[in-house]
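Good morning N.,

You mentioned wanting to compare the apo and holo forms, so I went ahead and generated the holo version with S-adenosylmethionine. This is what I fed in:
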Amino acid sequence: MKRSTLELLCCPNCQSALSLRDERGDGTVDEGDLFCPYCERSFLIRNGIAHFISPQELEGLNRRFARFYDWFSHFAIFNKVFFLSMGGERKARTEILDRLDLNGGRILEVSIGSGDNLPYLFESPTAGEVYGLDISAAQLARCRSFVTTRGWSVDLFLAMAEVLPFKAESFDSVFHIGGINFFSEKKKAIDEMIRVARPGSKIVIADESERVARLIARTLGFSRSCQGKKVDTSVPVHLVSDTMEEIRVDGIWKRHGQYHGYCLEFRKPA
Ligand SMILES: C[S@@+](CC[C@H](N)C(=O)[O-])C[C@H]1O[C@@H](n2cnc3c(N)ncnc32)[C@H](O)[C@@H]1O
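and this is what came out, ligand included:
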């Protein structure tokens, strides 16, 4: 983690500024402890990744999917195969990433997974500093080794989309691909993306269509209900505050005349 990133971080419980203790690392912070003076909680930094959650405290779908993605991180090839049938990974990812207004500012990927969007982001001469978080420690470990191999500077955080450990208005672009259909609290996650985005910035959210989500759930044997409630995998446009501007939804990942995904985008008022 870059030392300067401390300025962006806040306690996920009370949003107070954090202080850094017992810091170790050569230029960057590889090990240490982020301390909230208000809650008196501390959050470990290990191998450069700040840990804002522990698996034991996750509930509902988040608990189920953190475990699933820890396991799934060994089968990253699945994503490539999925996108192959949609015209290839490059096409599938740039169809979404091209909608971001990259202007050299800070970019946050919520649910960065193993970092498969990064090659396309870093191709852009207007990509700025990149930050990513995920609920799965194994996905983040893969992402860290990927960015280290490529020599990219990307700060990573183990955190939940529903409770972001960042101060308000910290990022110039915020995006999410591929997880929100099965988040525990989608509305909370969308509100958090809005909170951490700078006024005037674009927020882009994409996932599989309801039909594909149903098919994936059936194939992988997920139950589509959790804690007695049916999981809603419709496009979450109804959860976007109506104070947002330029709200639009498009079908993406077209194959045999059918869209296999959706992309929801909007702008936070300036
Ligand atoms: C299909 S992968 C997509 C990864 C990456 N965005 C991509 O486009 O390749 C979905 C990711 O969402 C993460 N995820 C699931 N629920 C989450 C939550 N509540 N908060 C943060 N990440 C979550 C999973 O761990 C997984 O890495």
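The chain is about 25% helix and 30% strand.

Happy to go through it together on a call whenever suits you.

Best,
F.
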